[in-house]
Amino acid sequence: TKVAVLISGTGTNLQALMEQVKKPSSSAEIVVVISNRPGVMGLKRASMAGIQTRVVDHKLYGSRAEFDGTIDKVLEEFGVELVCLAGFMRILTGPFVRKWSGKMLNIHPSLLPSFKGVNAQKQALQAGVRVTGCTVHFVAEEVDAGAIVVQEAVPILVTDTEESLSERIREAEHRAFPAALELVASGGLKLRDDGRIVWNQSV
Ligand code: GRF
To answer: What is the ipTM of this complex?
Structure first.
């Protein structure tokens, strides 16, 4: 399965996905990495791994639709079949999300549906929950609300700060995202038209 990874920054999730697809057992190949911001660390990681990169700078576009349209052109240029949003900090428009429905995954640093939106790690700390985690889900038009593919729970320690908790969640992300990528890329799991998850027992 030809995969595109969309990033906005550091790219530690990208790094985990690149390491996953190098395994002989992997059903996925990352064919392009797209960033909405130039010069970020994730672009260097991709180049070091010999993966083609593109920058589509959202500041250069007059509308979200035009930005998404350019992203879509790059995806078509590379024959992409599956999109992974890995720390991609842009909201995508309805038409784009609908086109890639069932073929686009996102990672969120909480156990959705709890703590949607930004600062999910901080929201969990402030809510006083003892367990949080990360979620890989199909991207739907409603933000952070698509069908869930993989989750991993993470304990919150009494000594935790936003930083220490975020680091522990990121370690879980680096296991959850590769697992979710393989499930979808191998056809083991897919999104049904009614928005429910279907497991392919025969795989
Ligand atoms: C992660 O915390 C992820 O949950 C969120 O953005 C961050 C991405 O980090 N979507 P990185 O760029 O993959 O290191």
So the answer is: 0.91
